[in-house]
Each structure stands twice: as structure tokens, then as C-alpha cells.
Amino acid sequence: MPALRSVAWFAAGDPHARTPVQVSVNSGQDPALAAVAAQLTDQLTRLDQTVFANVSHDSADPDTAPPPPFDDSFWSGPPLHGATLRGDLIEWTCDAIGWLAEAVANCAARLGAVSPLLLTVARTAGHADAG
């Protein structure tokens, strides 16, 4: 997986910079992502990395997902089938969010989700594990 080649980039990070996040991943009209949400969480947990830790998931409610910033014809919207991942991101930076997006997309593709994905990352309340 390409994202694993850059894990060392985050090694010097501040352990107190960990940020609890919610990752909404949606495959639009294609039900593939919702069908593999638990497997997606398992794959992310098994990766040899500390960039995204303490991963859990639940089904995404399309009514609570933020609307895409573009027309549904741009992807396979509207956002009907998805999952919400929760975990601790090593830091709240564009680099860490980009790494996370790549890791999620690669894991989803390995599991057969080949349609375009809508991915939204947001900070959440809570205490991240600094260890």
C-alpha cells in the first residue's frame, strides 16, 4: 500500500498533537462501501502504522452527512451508502489528512469499492490517546 511508504514522515510528531476525528466515507449510489465497512475498519487497524489509531466504525446516515461541495453528477451521488470511521489522527494537518484519505481509498479499493468515494474528515470532541 503506497501510504505505508510514508509512515516515517510522521515519526517525529508531537504525541500531544493527536486529534480525534470522524471520517465519513460514502460511495453514493453504489452500495459497495457500506457492505465492507467492518472489513475496512479491520484493514485500517491491521496496517503497520500509528497515523490513524483506535479505529472504529458505524453506518453513515445519509441525512447527517455534510452535503458535497459539488453537483452529484460529478461523482456517483447523492450520498446514499457509506460508513463513518472514528479514530485518533496523529496530527490535524493537511499531510495527515491526505495520508488518511489515501489509506482509506486504497483499503476500500482492495475490498472491491471501485466507484468514486466522497471522503470528509472532521475533528470531534473527545480525548485522543497520546500513547
Labels describing this entry:
4-stranded antiparallel beta sheet; single chain; 131 residues; alpha+beta; 24% helix
Characterize the main sheet. Answer: 4 strands, antiparallel
Helix-and-strand structural type: alpha+beta
Question: How large a portion of the residues is in β-strands, by DSSP E?
Answer: 15-25%
Number of beta strands:
4
Contiguous runs where pLDDT drops below 50 for at least 5 residues: none
Average of the residue pLDDT scores: 84
What does this structure look like?
By secondary structure, this protein is of the alpha+beta class. The chain is built from 3 helices and 4 strands. Strands 2-3-1-4 form a 4-stranded antiparallel beta sheet. The radius of gyration is 14 Å and the shape is globular.
Per-chain topology:
Layout: E1 19-26, H1 32-35, H2 37-46, E2 52-59, E3 82-89, H3 94-110, E4 118-123
Antiparallel strand pairs: 1-3, 1-4, 2-3
Describe the structure in brief.
This protein is an alpha+beta fold and 131 residues long. The chain has helices at 32-35, 37-46, 94-110, and strands spanning 19-26, 52-59, 82-89, 118-123. The chain has a four-stranded antiparallel β-sheet.
